[in-house]
Design brief:
The protein is α+β, with helices and mostly antiparallel strands and about 200 residues long. The mean pLDDT is about 95.
């Protein structure tokens, strides 16, 4: 696997249409997809472009009834002790019920960006979405200050608790750097953007 961190997302194909990346510690790619409500009995390794046509391809092969209730496709992989799920222009990982299910018995993280530069970050543990934010100063959740030490070390908060003057793109880069330096997550670009991952419909 590549030793990429996560920061490259802001320089990638995914920025144009938006992305949602969900991480879960200690899970397999298949288990992460299952917890996100995907059909893990019908998976295939797909690149990002082919994955976007997965529903149409299955419908053509098996008939429209086979995909009647399917909304999208998620691709997943594993790196450095974490499973990751990548949504191209999706947002399933931001749904609290989904993220809570993903985090059952472990820790889950989610970073989101859409075409309007709306961002979200969520941290969940043991079935609870503990905290989240768009801007680090506007944290919410049952324990909104849980990540303050991480955010401070990551440059997203100043030592006095205020927020530095960062643009949206720069702030997102800091979030992704924090994902790597504070939690040890890795998103291998060669596999995610240019290669194939396990793809499943939901």
């Amino acid at each position: 696997m590549s030793t990429d961190s996560v920061e490259w997302l802001q320089d990638s194909y995914f920025v144009e249409f938006g992305y949602c990346v969900t991480f879960a510690r200690g899970l397999s790619a298949t288990e992460l997809l299952r917890r996100m409500g995907c059909d893990t009995a019908n998976t295939a390794r797909k690149g990002v472009v082919d994955a976007n046509h997965r529903i149409e391809d299955v419908a053509e092969e098996f008939g429209h009834r086979a995909v009647a209730d399917r909304e999208g496709v998620i691709r997943a992989g594993e790196a450095d002790g974490w499973a990751f799920a990548v949504e191209d222009a999706g947002s399933r990982g931001t749904h609290h019920d989904i993220l809570a299910a993903v985090s059952t018995g472990t820790t889950a993280l989610c970073t989101f960006w859409n075409i309007n530069a709306l961002t979200m970050f969520h941290y969940a543990q043991s079935g609870v979405v503990v905290c989240g934010f768009d801007r680090p100063r506007d944290r919410r959740g049952p324990d909104p200050d849980r990540l303050v030490p991480h955010l401070t070390r990551g440059g997203l908060l100043l030592p006095d608790g205020t927020q530095p003057d960062l643009g949206i793109d720069e702030r997102q880069r800091f979030v992704h750097r924090m994902l790597h330096t504070e939690f040890g997550t890795t998103l291998p670009r060669e596999d995610v953007e240019y290669g194939e991952l396990l793809a499943a419909m939901y």
